[in-house]
Amino acid sequence: MAKIRSPIVSVLGHVDHGKTSILDSIRGTTVVKSEPGRITQHISASYVPISVIKNLCGNALQKMGISVTIPGLLFIDSPGHEAFTTLRKRGGAIADIAILVVDINEGFQPQTVESLNFLKQFKTPFIVAATKIDRLLGWRPQPNACFLDSVEAQPERVRNELEKKFYNLVGQLSMHGFEGERFDRISNFSKQIAIVPISNITKEGISDLLLITAGITQKFMSKDLELTPGEGKGTILEVKEFKGLGMTIDVILYDGDIHKADWLVIGGEVVIKTRVKALLEPKPLKELKDGKDFIQVNEVHAAAGIKIAAPCMENVVPGMPVRAIRNEKDISKAVAEVEQEKEEVEIETDNDGALLKADTLGSLEALIKTFKGKIPVKRAKVGPVTKNDVMEMKTATKPMVFSFCLKTPEDVSVLAKDNNVRIFSSNVIYTLIEDHKKWEDEIKLRWKEELLKKTNHPGRIKVIRGYVFRQSKPAIFGAEVLLGTIRTGSRMVKNKKIIGEINEIQSQGENKSEAKMGDKIAISMPDVTIGKHVNENDTLDVFLSNSDRENLEKVRDKLRPDELELLDELKEN
């Protein structure tokens, strides 16, 4: 029988909804309920043995009818979509299952939707952790309790409020094509998304979250969790200098095993071949920042997080694939495999469009998928924005570069500004989309304002009886603007015939460039004779050319109601 590895669990969700603290809660709860040292702090990951989960959850697994064989759960310790997109393998994300964190009081937010889109794109099963139940008004905390015990201890009013907010989440999931239900009410885990209400502060429901995560992975993913003996397969999470060892890589090992002195094949612009000098694991429950808390080991088996020291790793990029090879003759096969994995990130380029730049291959893949159908993309590359990128994009119809999780050098930013190339930078993909939309809206607004300035507006005046100041050369008379806007230079129409052009507009003795509905003004028209072309009480309309009418339709949302009323009336006549 094949050996089963621990499932890899990623945590996603909106900022401030509790992504970071949920892992702290899992670690804290499991430490409290188990013997010290049982929870292993892997590199950038936290490993919870199944024995601890059984201890926490009592007989609940047996009630679910699940015979547990998974060794435990490996939680990726860099919560958020950045880690989710960075950590990938052939065929999709490295995570076997994800926890989507949603504040039950706030519901879905922009990054929640973005995270949900990633889960769809990578076809990753997920559970919803509905956090912050302790913030419900009147909630009576039951520290470390299972959710069902905790909710029974709440007043009826609080339970009703919880139900109301809970089914708001169910409705929001439904809008995105998912059927959700509270974990204890689910009839079919293969069709319904389990929602587990929890508190990261009181740790209520944390044991239920572990139970459901273990149960679902055990029941539906056993085949996917079978280990392939030998060759270790992993993805690089971080690249950093380590005192005494030089450049090291933090790797999530998702299949096989890795031994000291194994050959390493690392994907990138140029495939790197090197050899393991040291394998380091953090001591249990210790912070990773302190180098003293690492111990050297001779081998590591998936699924695990590990720090690897090896020569020639200065040009390694996070998110790239890693293969650990025992036999040197198998290196060529591994090289072909990592190159193929890199080529999986494909893009159907447009003839014209934006340039996408990202810190890792996985991030780039997420960018490509998110931009598809929203913003045309000409090229997509890993690495920071360069001067060559700017010069390449300056001739594009819309010279735009999107930079994800990267810092743009100052000289490149200056060059981009000088060449009217717009660089959008953010560590959040939805922010890039939002910033682009705001920029597009600003451009559209300026375009509409310019179009409005050079386009004649619909306008109608009435010649006021008794206010003819001069009959001709030029005719000067009083008028009231009945509808719309008139401007100096506007040609006026009577009975569909152009009679002349407005030379000047005066109001209370001051010259004006325009007048609007309700204004009473004096008008000067050189080519008009009062009594011949225009009479008292006549109404005159601004002449609108076909070009004017086309332009006005493009900016209808910028016209006043009275201008729209007159424009539509003139269309009918």
Structure, described:
The chain folds into 4 domains: 8-221, Rossmann fold, CATH 3.40.50.300; 232-343, Elongation Factor Tu (Ef-tu), domain 3; 354-445, Translation initiation factor IF- 2, domain 3 (Rossmann fold, 3-Layer(aba) Sandwich); 459-572, Translation factors (Elongation Factor Tu (Ef-tu), domain 3, Beta Barrel). It is 30% helix and 30% strand. It has 15 helices and 33 strands. Helix 2 packs across helix 8 (206-221).
List keywords for this structure.
Rossmann fold; single chain; 33 strands; elongated; 573 residues; Elongation Factor Tu (Ef-tu), domain 3; 4 domains; alpha+beta
Strand content: 25-35%
Biggest beta-sheet profile: 9 strands, antiparallel
How many strands appear in the DSSP assignment? 33
Helix content percent band: 25-40%
The CATH homologous superfamily of the largest domain corresponds to P-loop containing nucleotide triphosphate hydrolases
Query: What's the gyration radius in Å?
Result: 34 Å
Number of domains: 4
Structural class by secondary-structure content: alpha+beta
C-alpha geometry: elongated
Per CATH, the architecture of the largest domain is 3-Layer(aba) Sandwich
What's the quick description here?
The protein is α+β, with helices and mostly antiparallel strands. Helices cover 30% and strands 30% of the residues.
Fold blueprint:
Layout: E1 8-13, H1 19-33, E2 40-42, E3 45-49, H2 50-57, H3 60-63, E4 72-76, H4 81-86, E5 88-89, E6 92-93, E7 97-103, H5 110-121, E8 126-131, H6 147-152, H7 156-175, E9 180-182, E10 193-197, H8 206-221, E11 232-242, E12 246-255, E13 257-259, E14 263-266, E15 272-275, E16 278-282, E17 294-297, E18 299-301, E19 304-309, E20 321-325, H9 331-343, E21 354-358, H10 361-371, E22 377-382, H11 387-393, E23 400-404, H12 410-418, E24 422-426, H13 429-454, E25 459-470, E26 475-487, E27 491-494, E28 497-501, E29 504-507, E30 510-512, E31 514-516, E32 520-525, E33 539-542, H14 546-554, H15 561-572
Parallel strand pairs: 1-4, 1-7, 7-8, 8-10, 9-10, 21-22, 21-23, 23-24
Antiparallel strand pairs: 2-3, 3-4, 5-6, 11-12, 11-20, 12-19, 13-18, 14-15, 14-20, 16-17, 16-19, 25-26, 25-33, 26-31, 26-32, 27-28, 27-33, 29-30, 29-32
Helix pairs in contact: 2-8
